Amino acid sequence: MGGARAFVTGIGGQDGSYLAEQLLAEGGEVHGLLLPDEPLGFTPAAVTVHRGDVSDVAATRALLREVEPDEVYNLAAVSSVARSWSEPELTSLVNGHAAAALLESARLCQEATGRQVRVVQASSAEIFGDAPGPHDESTPIRPVNPYGAAKAFAHLAVGVQRHRDLHAVAVILYNHESPRRPRHFVTRKITSTVAAIARGEADTLTLGNLEARRDWGWAPEYVDAMVRAARHEVAQDYVVATGETHSVRDFVAAAFAAAGIDDWEGLVESDAALVRAADAAVSVGDASRARRDLGWAPATTFAEVVARMVRADLA
């Protein structure tokens, strides 16, 4: 499907920019949706940028008919679990309702043109909540926060549209990082603060729960899984994960090691106010289906993911 015309929502974010780069490198044509006041971020210059809000269903539907894409990637979301607690209505609108509406818009576009439209919904490990892991595609959906609940609604809508002959897939993404991750994410907070400490510009790193364990991978590889999922002959859902867990403390230790600081324990403080409500203690995925059906496997180690982020922040 090289040379495909793609429509990507949330193209200004970490995943959107890496996805655009991959699709453009294949010779594809990329149209991206950005909020009216959103900065371009890392969006490549070759992307045709459209300003709008995915939650404006009528406008987005009209835009999709105008673009007539071969592939649609829905990455637009309220991306912070913490923010979902303070803005649950917005989260349900953007992450849930707007995603379901985009799937319907793609189906209507396919119906009108007679050409297949393939849709990838960026789902999340948060749909599984505190279900025991490792999670695979058959793990019961039982979210424990507003973010997960909204993502679960969109995830289920993918299956509904598959029954209506739409080639729709959900990629269930576990934590995936890069230097393009915004600073309000704990991983980037860690690497940017560690870099500041190494430069003598900060004294301490303040975090919440250091013992929470997550499955962390390298973002460009997860974006590649999205493209593979879109183009696989069978439309089905895929867990995208490394299958390994590390604690926030492990992440901190790896970041200080990458910055050349060995004695770091005294530089880190824990603040109970930063501990999230109803947070799953451990999140880990089983990507066996993606390995088997898509030929996808993570290649970048946990330590290297952290080191790349620290090097970028030091630079």
UniProtKB/TrEMBL annotation:
Gene Ontology process terms (BP): 'de novo' GDP-L-fucose biosynthetic process
GO molecular function: GDP-mannose 4,6-dehydratase activity
NAD(P)-binding domain mapped to chain residues: 7-309
Keywords tagged on the record: Lyase
Its EC number(s): 4.2.1.47
SUPFAM superfamilies tied to this protein: NAD(P)-binding Rossmann-fold domains
UniProt superkingdom: Bacteria
Family matches, as InterPro entries: GDP_Man_deHydtase, NAD(P)-bd_dom, NAD(P)-bd_dom_sf
Names of required cofactors: NADP(+)
Enzyme class name: lyase
Similarity-based family: Belongs to the NAD(P)-dependent epimerase/dehydratase family. GDP-mannose 4,6-dehydratase subfamily.
Entry-linked PANTHER family: GDP-MANNOSE 4,6 DEHYDRATASE, GDP-MANNOSE 4,6-DEHYDRATASE
Protein name: GDP-mannose 4,6-dehydratase
Species of provenance: Nocardioides perillae
